[in-house]
Amino acid sequence: MTKILLKRAYTAPSVEDGYRILVDMLWPRGKSKAALQLDHWAKALAPSTGLRKGWDHDADRFGEFAQHYRAELYQNPAVDGFLEVLDQHPVVTLVYGAKNEQANHAVVLRDYLLDQLSGP
For the chain, how many structural domains are there in total? Predict the structure, then answer.
């Protein structure tokens, strides 16, 4: 099974990251392509603009945000293709720009993907 790691875009890449995927809709400010060392940009898996702006990274509303984002992911046709990409790599790092390392969309995405990979 694929190991899914999380890393901020502002933390230096490392060999242990494996296949690096940016999961933000917007490119991280001040970061070049070379600095991020990405293998893929999966902006189709990022929260919708309305959901992202409505949440506004308010940690107190993270549970509500996570519930709505999981509902978006459940209906997102890009997830199936992304799961196939994950199957091809033993270690994948989801790269995100948010400051809060515990309450961000990448945490929700990782947990959702792990649920999908483990099956029923």
Answer: 1
Rounded to whole angstroms, how far apart are CA atoms 59 and 100?
A: 8
Q: What range does the domain containing 71 cover?
A: 3-118
Largest CA distance in the chain: 41
45 within 8 A of 79, measured Cβ to Cβ = yes
Going by their DSSP bridges, the two strands 91-96 and 19-22 should be labelled as parallel
Strand-pair partners of 91: 3
Please list, in sequence order, all residues whose beta carbon lies within 8 angstroms of the beta carbon of residue 116, skipping any fewer than 6 positions away.
Answer: 79, 83
**Which pLDDT tens digit goes with each residue over 42-71?**
999 999 999 988 887 788 889 999 999 999
CA dist 8 and 28 (Å) reads: 10
